[in-house]
Amino acid sequence: MSASAGAGAGPGRFISGVVEGFYGRPWTMEQRSELFKREQKWGLNTYLYAPKDDYKHRMYWRDLYTAEEAEQLMALISAAKQHDVTFIYAISPGLDITFSNPKEVAALKKKLDQVKEFGCKSFSLLFDDIETEMCPADKQVFSSFAHAQAAITNEVYRHLGEPETFLFCPTDYCAAFCTPNVSQSSYLHTVGETLLPGIDILWTGPKVVSHKISVESIEEVSSVLKRAPVIWDNIHANDYDPQRLFLGPYKDRPTELIPKLKGVLTNPNCEFFPNFVAIHTLATWCKATADGGPKDVEMGEEEQDPYSPQKALTLALTDWLQEFQRTDQPGGPCRPPACLKKELSDEEPMQTDLGENYVPGPGDNPLYTAEPLTLDDLKLLSDLFYLPYEHGPTARTMLQELDWLRSNRCAATAGTDMTAEWCSRAQRFDDMCDAVVQMFNRLSNAPNRSILYDLYNYICDIKSGVGLARAFVKTLGGQSRPSAQLMNDDPEPWGFRGGLSGEFQRMLPGHGNRDLYRHPPMTAVYCIRPFCPEDKMEVQRIFKEIQSAGDGEPALVTQPPLISDSLSAGELAPSPQCAFVLEDEIGMCGYALALIDAKPAAAKIQRAVSGSVFEEFPSLIAVQVLPRVTDPSPTKRMIGGLLSSIRSSGSRGAFCELRQSDQRMLNFYTKLGSFKPIQVDGLHADIVTMATDM
Ligand code: GDL
């Protein structure tokens, strides 16, 4: 199963390169030819043609190519050959193929025969992202979906003369899709046992977009598949989110994987030009070998690896910088950026056109001169658009600083010891924002417009985002009136960004987002403090809000009445030292109230509770937390504090009353573990009582 990475042909070679396997606009033929050139230069050897939204690759897979299309494909296949790149033609018939119908198999063979005539020698059948249910006709012939796919794949493979490179993409192409798991997946076992040994299998790792791929996970899947997989890596794919682009290095795949794999193909960003980093760093990774570099005991763990993502990124960005300076427009730009002008000035005068002939007179505006883009600009750009599970270092610092400035806003104008620190950190944040704007300006003026146009929407978006954050910090520091962009009742559309999808997200708990910066789940600052009488109204508000959540109806009056409702509604006062409230930066977001002895309170609201309940669990607690608090730990801490107050009063146990409809709190208490449901007679069927001893 072992292989070594790098270019070269032959059955044992490590497949390395690019899969054009994303949804959306496919790359152009020119871009693909450019890709082959780069692959050759960087030592990558394969290109898998699998553009999801190309009609004849998937939706109309049966249709043969027209003469014009044939010409283009032939040119592409020969361009790949010229650059020593293996061109693999993939087809995705899974949307509607009937496996058991011989006409369908014939159609598939005919289509692939046509591509073979174009000079293509390597093929692939893809069954990703399709329905897993077989049609009735197939169910009669095949014992499972895996058997159907493997049978047809073997037949096509043989028909094509057992090509040296032939790839199969399973429907369960990552661990997350396997039921119940990889080692017990009957689908994967059948695929592994039935597919002919010359066919290689694609695998995306633990997930569709895998954060990390471990050696153990590959060993596990290899033993089920009976061969080393070819990784289809979605680490740089961005087709699932129009606001994201990935310019970080190939990362979190140890180089010890190389001998355990048959290959790696990256399925990168939809935009062709920004993939320079994704592909360049993958090439660096493929060249790194486990016994490559000298080992230094002083080195950290990452340094021990012959591949350093950070170094690979710098190499890639250094080469990419050259690309930005290359003019790709016929005739333009009229004037070179400042850096190039100097070099040229010693030589012959430049070819001129109208713009170049114009020489400003004394007192006229000087000609606009573009500042050259720098390596630091590209590092910053990559940090802002890094990887799917990670922001780059500068982006992380910016988020941390903004979070600190926001959390310590009181210090901004208080004139205390912390004010100086607040102001200097605000200035640092402002400088970082300014660097983003400067980077944007220099990028916009770079001679290579094709790269710029692919980046444009993203850099515009981040420039606006940073602009809003910057204005917000200025407002906090009292340096400007509440920003027009932020606070105005009639802002410009860029003051409320994100469209309908943004609105949907904001309505979901935790904004529907798992912020990369807040990882693990939440680092929002919560404060738990003792309840005071002035909090009564807010507690009532939270109680009402939760009671009416869902259908917008006011709370149902439960008969007999609940002691905890009376406590939350302020009709009963909590016992001294037995009440807390939870606050976040918006305000009060939860409370925990207790009655040490609930019996008199029950009597007060004429609630009969059997004596044995009060004997075993004399105290009652009422806890509520607004849904915006998605992190369970502050609620746990608040309940912990309340229980310890109850304990120190000498109580033997506490109970709570919950409505069945309050699934959130029911789940919460269940997960806490210490509370167990108890039987209380005479309660409404909707009420669950849970109790804990001290
Ligand atoms: C997928 C698709 C791929 C897509 C990617 C990222 C595979 C095998 N298939 O599941 O076409 O680009 O997710 O959205 O990865």
TrEMBL record:
Keyword Hydrolase among UniProt keywords: yes
Keyword Hydrolase carried by entry: yes
Disordered: annotated span: 326-353
Gene3D superfamilies: 3.40.630.30, Glycosidases, STAT, domain 1
Catalytic activity: 3-O-(N-acetyl-beta-D-glucosaminyl)-L-threonyl-[protein] + H2O = L-threonyl-[protein] + N-acetyl-D-glucosamine; 3-O-(N-acetyl-beta-D-glucosaminyl)-L-seryl-[protein] + H2O = N-acetyl-D-glucosamine + L-seryl-[protein]
Listed GO MF terms: [protein]-3-O-(N-acetyl-D-glucosaminyl)-L-serine/L-threonine O-N-acetyl-alpha-D-glucosaminase activity; beta-N-acetylglucosaminidase activity
GO biological process: glycoprotein metabolic process
One Pfam family it belongs to: NAGidase
Signal sequence annotation: none
Keyword vocabulary terms for this entry: Glycosidase, Hydrolase
Domain called GH84: residue spans: 14-290
SUPFAM superfamilies: (Trans)glycosidases (SSF51445)
EC number: 3.2.1.169
Protein known as: protein O-GlcNAcase
Source organism of the structure: Echeneis naucrates (Live sharksucker)
Top-level taxonomy: Eukaryota, Metazoa, Chordata, Craniata, Vertebrata
Gene that this sequence comes from: ogal
